[in-house]
């Protein structure tokens, strides 16, 4: 997926939220976008999901501009799990995951459970498949939304702050699951993270954004430095090396 | 999420059958059950047979189909507007249809299907007014706007008909086979469409952004379901007038019995809506004979408190 010189503003003649940004997302990689609030991360993700249309530039997927795909074709290639996933009425776990198969069939046909059941197993949701979504914990619900996205069998999975609202245990297990998804299904993961240590440990590429532009990108262990963090986030931090690897420690 | 629809359908179906039999044999013209059976089997006495087949059966069929249509219309509105109390009768659709039927009666009194055509125009105009506001406010404010539109339309009608107040020119008491058969044919077609599109209502349980990522045209789905709901409501209003609250009571009751899957909620609402409407009408025309209590009044007496119950129930009314 290649992002070519895109710009976006929510209102005409206002400051660009995304300002002439270019970047190539490597296939089968895990890419983490980090940056302060308002830096344009979520807007960029929404452009990649085709929820917003850039005022300038384009995004190329498999040698084709993303706006040239039909809605159904694009849904077979790119899935997104938002930070907030509203549920207006209760639904069973399996019925929600079945929605992920919509791009492959008719809206009036039931999904093929031969595809759905292994996905439920994979996400350890098989025993919960008939449970109502509203009876699940936040961590379990997030796994169901991820399972629905996987049922789309996408090439790219976009995740907007997937660990928000989760406690430390669920954050850790979800990040491990995302890493596993990438290696087991060869899906490219593009995610927005606020926790810089998660970006350091779970991504192969880190993209640091500020004011709608990319400040730096590359191996997270290389680009997430104390100097960059001070410049972008205006925080004093130290990157320490211990047995388990590098850690970012925010200093008072 | 495991409910037992087979039991629920059987019991409700049986209750419906019993209610139809009771409704057929009770009423202002009093005769014994055996006389009624004799009239149905032998055709004698002719007056009893006429009462059963021409007067009561047409009214029963009209009540059944009206109850089914309004209940399904409510379920469609609730899913498309994502609001548990959205219902065409309180959002002004029925009132719009009713007002335009009056105008139709004045402008083109002799045209075939005048009432139906003008009811559809009125319902669609009220719906358009609602949709104009839909983009500007959240779904909860939209319901309040719908209530205001309803009040405005009811009052406009009162201005045009100062002597008769707001009561409809048509009601279940005015049904004949001529009106009932039109309602029956249109109703059955519309209900079949509703059963076919029931899975779409399930999709609307999740957010617009989530639906877009599945490649679905969200606005088309919502508008299609709402337009179907408007048609169902206008068919009823044109033939038997405004019947409030059924569209709220029945889908809510159905969800508590067969679960939240619209592939169950809609078929169950058809049976339960028909049952509740027929019970209301039968009580209304038998408790104070020879006078009648309008079914609309009975539905309001039961439906009003039920609406309050839905609104005050913990967790039932959450904003997303």
Low-pLDDT residue intervals, each spanning 5 or more residues of chain A: none
Terminal Cα separation of chain B, in Å? 22 Å
Mean pLDDT of chain B equals: 88
Order of helices and strands of chain B: HHHHHHHHHHHH
The neighbouring-strand order within the major sheet of chain A is 6-7-8-3-9-10
Give the beta-strand count of chain B: 0
> Helix amount of chain B, in percent?
over 70%
Order of helices and strands of chain A: EEEHEEHEHHHEHEHEEHHEE
How many extended strands of chain A? 12
Supply the CATH architecture of chain B: Orthogonal Bundle
Written account of the structure:
The complex is a heterodimer of chains A (252) and B (320). Chain A is an alpha/beta fold and 252 residues long. Chain A has one domain: Rossmann fold (3-Layer(aba) Sandwich), CATH 3.40.50.300. Chain A contains nine helices and twelve strands. In chain A, helix 3 packs parallel to helix 5 and helix 4 runs antiparallel to helix 5. Chain A is globular and about 55 Å long. Chain B is mainly α and 320 residues long. Chain B has a single domain, classed as ABC transporter involved in vitamin B12 uptake, BtuC. Chain B is 74% helix and 0% strand. Chain B contains twelve helices and no strands. The radius of gyration of chain B is 20 Å and the shape is globular. Chain B starts with a helix and ends in an 8-residue tail after the last helix. The chains are: A alpha/beta (252), B mainly alpha (320). Chains A and B meet through helix 2, strand 6 and helix 3 of A and helix 7 and helix 8 of B.
């Amino acid at each position: 997926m290649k992002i070519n010189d895109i710009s976006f503003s929510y209102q005409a003649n206002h400051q660009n939220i995304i300002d002439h940004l270019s970047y190539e997302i490597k296939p089968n990689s895990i890419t983490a976008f980090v940056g302060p609030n308002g830096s344009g991360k979520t807007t960029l993700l929404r452009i990649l999901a085709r929820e917003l249309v850039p005022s300038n530039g384009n995004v190329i997927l498999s040698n084709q501009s993303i706006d040239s795909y039909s809605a159904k074709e694009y849904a077979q290639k790119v899935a997104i799990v938002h930070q907030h996933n509203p549920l207006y009425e209760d639904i069973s776990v399996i019925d929600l995951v079945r929605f992920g198969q919509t791009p492959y069939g008719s809206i009036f046909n039931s999904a093929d459970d031969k595809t759905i059941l292994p996905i439920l197993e994979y996400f350890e949701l098989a025993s919960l498949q008939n449970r109502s979504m509203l009876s699940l914990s936040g961590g379990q619900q997030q796994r169901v939304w991820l399972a629905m996205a996987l049922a789309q069998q996408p090439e790219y999975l976009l995740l907007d702050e997937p660990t928000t609202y989760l406690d430390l245990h669920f954050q850790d297990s979800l990040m491990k699951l995302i890493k596993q998804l990438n290696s087991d299904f060869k899906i490219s993961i593009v995610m927005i993270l606020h926790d810089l240590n998660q970006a350091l440990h779970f991504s192969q590429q880190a993209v640091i954004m500020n004011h709608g532009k990319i400040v730096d990108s590359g191996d997270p262990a290389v680009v997430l430095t104390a100097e960059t963090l001070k410049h972008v986030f205006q925080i004093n931090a130290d990157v320490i090396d211990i047995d388990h690897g590098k850690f970012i420690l925010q200093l008072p | 999420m495991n409910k037992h629809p087979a039991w629920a359908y059987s019991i409700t179906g049986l209750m419906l059958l019993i209610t139809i039999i009771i409704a057929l044999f009770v009423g202002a013209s009093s005769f014994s059950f055996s006389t009624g059976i004799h009239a149905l089997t032998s055709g004698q006495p002719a007056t009893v047979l006429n009462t059963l087949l021409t007067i009561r059966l047409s009214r029963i069929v009209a009540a059944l189909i009206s109850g089914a249509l309004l209940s399904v219309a409510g379920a469609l509105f609730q899913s498309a507007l994502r609001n548990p109390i959205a219902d065409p009768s309180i959002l002004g659709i029925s009132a719009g249809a009713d007002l335009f039927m009056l105008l139709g009666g004045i402008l083109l009194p002799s045209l075939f299907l005048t009432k139906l055509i003008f009811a559809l125009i009125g319902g669609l105009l009220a719906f358009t007014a609602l949709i104009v506001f839909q983009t500007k406010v959240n779904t909860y404010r939209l319901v309040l706007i719908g209530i205001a539109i309803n009040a405005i339309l009811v009052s406009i009608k009162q201005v045009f008909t100062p002597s008769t107040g707001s009561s409809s020119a048509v009601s279940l008491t005015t049904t004949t086979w001529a009106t009932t058969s039109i309602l029956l044919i249109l109703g059955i077609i519309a209900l079949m469409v509703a059963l076919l599109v029931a899975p779409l209502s399930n999709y609307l349980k999740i957010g617009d952004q989530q639906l877009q990522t599945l490649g679905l045209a969200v606005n088309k789905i919502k508008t299609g379901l709402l337009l179907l709901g408007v048609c169902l409501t206008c068919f009823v209003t044109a033939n038997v007038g405004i019947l409030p609250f059924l569209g709220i009571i029945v889908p809510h009751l159905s969800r508590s019995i067969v679960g939240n899957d619209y592939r169950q909620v809609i078929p169950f609402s058809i049976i339960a809506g028909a049952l509740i409407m027929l019970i209301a009408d039968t009580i209304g025309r038998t408790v104070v004979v020879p006078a009648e209590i309008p079914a609309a009044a009975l539905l309001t007496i039961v439906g009003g408190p039920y609406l309050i119950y839905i609104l005050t129930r913990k967790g039932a009314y959450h904003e997303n």
